[in-house]
């Protein structure tokens, strides 16, 4: 008598089957440190003064999506409110575009103003 599930003598076992498709290709999770780096670079793209490495970003993840807080220096003189909105919008756009994240909120803290030098 053979064991249950064992192939009969002289036959081969069927190859293992791939798991059934569960409705999608799967999920890719991007680490928070990578999301923070994307946020810092996006803030620099949007016109934050200084280098991306000088901008700070914190990411909080929940089941619904991510919330980001960025701390930036903005050029002065200039419209601080408009510049802050540009940073917020660019950060959200880049996180959606590059990481596929649902962005719940982007808080922008203006840590300092960088005075533009003008020549006369």
Layout of helices and strands, plus pairs?
Elements: H1 32-45, E1 56-61, E2 66-76, H2 80-99, E3 103-115
Parallel strand pairs: 2-3
Antiparallel strand pairs: 1-2
Helix pairs in contact: 1-2
- Reading side by side through the largest sheet, how are the strands ordered? 1-2-3
Q: SSE string, helix = H, strand = E?
A: HEEHE
Report helical residue fraction: 25-40%
In terms of DSSP E residues, the strand content is 25-35%
- Principal-axes geometry comes out as elongated
Return the structural class.
alpha+beta
Biased composition (Low complexity): 1-22
Protein name: Putative alkaline shock family protein YloU
Organism: Nocardiopsis composta
Region (Disordered): 1-31
Describe the fold and architecture.
It is a single chain. The chain is an alpha+beta fold and 120 residues long. It has a single domain, classed as Cation efflux protein, cytoplasmic domain (Alpha-Beta Plaits, 2-Layer Sandwich). The chain is 28% helix and 25% strand. It contains 2 helices and 3 strands; from the N terminus they run H-E-E-H-E. A 3-stranded mixed β-sheet has the order 1-2-3, with helices on one face. Helix 1 (32-45) packs across helix 2 (80-99). The termini are far apart. The model has no long low-confidence stretch (mean pLDDT 85).
């Amino acid at each position: 008598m053979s064991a249950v599930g064992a192939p009969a003598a002289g036959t081969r076992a069927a190859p293992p089957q791939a798991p059934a498709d569960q409705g999608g290709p799967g999920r890719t999770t991007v680490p928070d440190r990578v999301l923070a780096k994307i946020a810092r670079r996006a803030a620099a793209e949007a016109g934050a003064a200084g280098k991306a490495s000088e901008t700070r970003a914190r990411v909080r993840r929940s089941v619904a999506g991510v919330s980001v807080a960025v701390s930036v220096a903005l050029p002065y003189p200039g419209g601080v409110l408009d510049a802050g909105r540009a940073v917020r919008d660019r950060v959200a756009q880049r996180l959606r575009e590059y990481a596929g994240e649902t962005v719940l909120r982007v808080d922008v803290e203006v840590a300092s103003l960088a005075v533009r030098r003008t020549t006369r």
